[in-house]
Design goal:
single chain, alpha+beta, 614 residues, flat, five-stranded mixed beta sheet, 21 helices
């Protein structure tokens, strides 16, 4: 980073007013590369050029290219927000969120001929066919076509009629009553075209009007004693009812609603938008945008970019988190529509379930790009939100102390990345120079040694060369205080929290100093924290037991004449277990590094003295 350039920019920020406005960052060619708004221009703009090394990678990269900046003072923060939107649209700055208009259009095609087919198409390519549309949403088109062909039992195969009558057996759709079986030659052209027209009426007028029309036709057929036609219409009404019941799973009693949720990963935020219209889920849209300053800022810019004049702007938007300027964003978008927009953050009930559904869809899009499951990534994202972190703890370390009988004191470190354990980075610590059990002193020693390895690390990547996004300590407020003291001593910044268990040794909450954060409301977070706590406890207690066993066996071996601690350690390194040691011959014992024949003979006699008594 050019310090001379930064010094000049810092000097210029001293002249900025403490008033709301918009700032424009420019590169060396004078091109505007970022537009932002601020409550206080002086405070906001100067923050870019202070402690540059602590910026997020994307911010750091932008600041690297800033040669100059300009600003516009406004009368209010709201005016600044409106002006920011218009300037972003005008200049298309490189580092602002720019949503490409890739919606495209989709059509429902009705082919020409006596046995017309209804299909979903992306383009109007056949001049002889009839097209319904255009429709913005491909989901709406595909869902609608799928519904009508099932309800009205229209064919979806590649057979041509009447040329292919009775040339082959009917397909599976006929046998499961999802096709009327035109290929059998038993369905008259009149019956087929009646079904086709009713399907088109269903598409054009909607389900309720179609049901009303079909009901009247069924009653009329019954009065005319045309029971076959009446039964056919009755079956179609039942099919419509089944489709409607299935849609209630993703329905919400709201005429016009969008649900937006975001999931972070490294420098990208994945967003999902669920579109509800007339009480039904009509569409799902996914976006991936560069992570610049914070998710709150991303959400604000996304909403202002996504809803433009002339679009189908809903009456209400649910978001998965609160963000600064939420009400002003709603006010700006309302000015682009004929009705007022309300942006809310659901806390309970079905609205909250819809937000979780949107977040899961965003996580699934992220999972598709990262080879992780949506559940794992959502848990990590929700954990970050719960702890008030700027970004999800994609890479976290957990620590636990274990001792048996106060003699063998050890520590364990486990690593989770994107919700999965990374066993290659697990570490074991033997606590040194400590006479009795003191968890706080042991934790201090373990964490200090971990940071020493980071600060003085050399060589291959072994997990010590990087700092985690989060420390989780198996313990309460006292353990958290110890960890923070260690971090302050080494001048390292890592968010640290404790994992607390209940009287039954089950995960209960996360602790921060003297307060507890409940995790029971989020199943994913609860499952993740429980997995982390169980794993670090298992890992440390397993090491403790092995160390204690080895310590006990070493004590027994050093009682043998000619065997000291060095030879005892060499013997266990060679044979691994006490059983293997007992099964070794005297010659084999003598071959171990550091041993001689006399020591081997004494050891062999010691190991087999009980055999001689028997």
């Amino acid at each position: 980073m050019d310090e001379q350039r930064l010094a000049q920019l810092r000097k210029k920020t001293l002249l900025l007013p403490q008033e709301p406005g918009v700032y424009l960052m420019k590169d060396k060619s004078g091109t505007i590369i970022y537009v932002g708004k601020a409550k206080s221009l002086k405070n906001r703009v100067s923050s870019y050029f202070r402690s540059v090394e602590k910026h997020l990678p994307k911010v750091y990269k932008m600041v690297e290219h800033v040669q100059d900046f300009d600003y516009i003072v406004t009368d209010s923060e709201f005016e600044a927000l409106v002006l920011e939107c218009s300037l972003i649209k005008l200049h298309n700055p490189k580092y602002n969120i720019l949503l490409k208009d890739d919606k495209g259009y989709h059509y429902i095609r009705v082919s020409k001929g006596p046995y017309s087919r209804i299909t979903a198409e992306k383009q109007r390519t056949d001049p002889d066919s009839t097209y319904l549309g255009p429709y913005v949403s491909s989901m709406v088109v595909n869902e609608t076509v799928d519904e009508v062909v099932k309800v009205f039992r229209l064919p979806t195969c590649n057979r041509r009629f009447p040329e292919d009558f009775r040339k082959a057996r009917p397909c599976l759709n006929y046998h499961i009553k999802q096709c009327m079986g035109v290929c059998t030659g038993k369905v008259s052209l009149e019956t087929y075209q009646e079904a086709l027209q009713e399907a088109l009426e269903f598409i054009k007028k909607g389900g309720s009007q179609s049901v009303e029309s079909l009901t009247k036709k069924m009653e009329q057929a019954a009065e005319e004693l045309d029971f076959e036609r009446a039964a056919r219409l009755r079956d179609r009404l039942r099919a419509i009812d089944r489709v409607t019941q299935q849609q209630k799973v993703i329905a919400y009693n709201h005429a016009s609603l969008d649900v937006i949720a975001a999931v972070q990963h490294e420098e990208t935020v994945y967003l999902a938008v669920l579109v509800f219209r007339e009480g039904r889920l009509r569409d799902k849209k996914s976006f991936a945008v560069d992570y610049f300053e914070s998710v709150d800022h991303v959400l604000l810019e996304f909403i202002l970019s996504y809803y433009q004049p002339g679009d189908d702007i809903p009456a209400e938007v649910f978001v998965d988190r609160d963000f600064e300027d939420r009400e002003m964003a709603a006010q700006v978008v309302s000015g682009r529509s004929s009705r007022k927009l309300v942006i809310t953050v659901p806390q309970r009930g079905q609205p909250l379930q819809l937000v979780e559904m949107a977040r899961n869809n965003a996580a699934q899009e992220l999972a598709r790009k990262t080879s992780r499951t949506g559940r794992e990534l959502t848990a990590v994202d929700e954990l970050g939100q719960l702890l008030g972190m700027d970004r999800p703890p994609a890479y976290l370390e957990a620590y636990d102390i274990s001792n048996i009988g106060g003699q063998t004191i050890v520590g364990g470190m486990v690593v989770f990345e994107n919700g999965r354990p990374q066993k290659k980075y697990y570490k074991r610590f033997t606590i040194r120079d400590q006479d009795g059990p003191d968890d706080y002193a042991a934790m201090d020693q373990m964490l200090s040694r971990r940071l020493e390895r980071y600060l003085h690390h050399e060589g291959a990547a072994d997990g010590f060369e990087r700092l985690p996004d989060l420390w989780l300590i198996d313990g309460g407020a006292g353990h958290v205080h110890v960890a923070r003291t260690v971090l302050e001593r080494y001048g390292v910044q890592i968010p640290v929290f404790g994992m607390v268990k209940d009287s039954r040794h089950r995960t209960r909450a996360i602790t921060a100093d003297d307060r507890e954060i409940s995790i029971s409301q989020s199943r994913r977070v609860f499952a993740l924290v429980t997995a982390v706590q169980d794993e670090v406890h298992r890992y440390s207690i397993e090491f403790s037991r092995k160390s204690h066993q080895k310590s006990g066996m070493t004590t027994r071996l050093v009682s043998v004449e000619g065997i000291g601690e060095g030879r005892a350690a060499a013997l266990f390194r060679h044979f691994k277990t006490y059983k293997a040691l007992c099964e070794a011959t005297q010659e084999h014992l003598a071959q171990v590094k550091g041993m001689n024949r006399t020591a081997a003979a004494n050891l062999y006699q010691f190991l087999h003295q009980n055999d001689e008594k028997d």
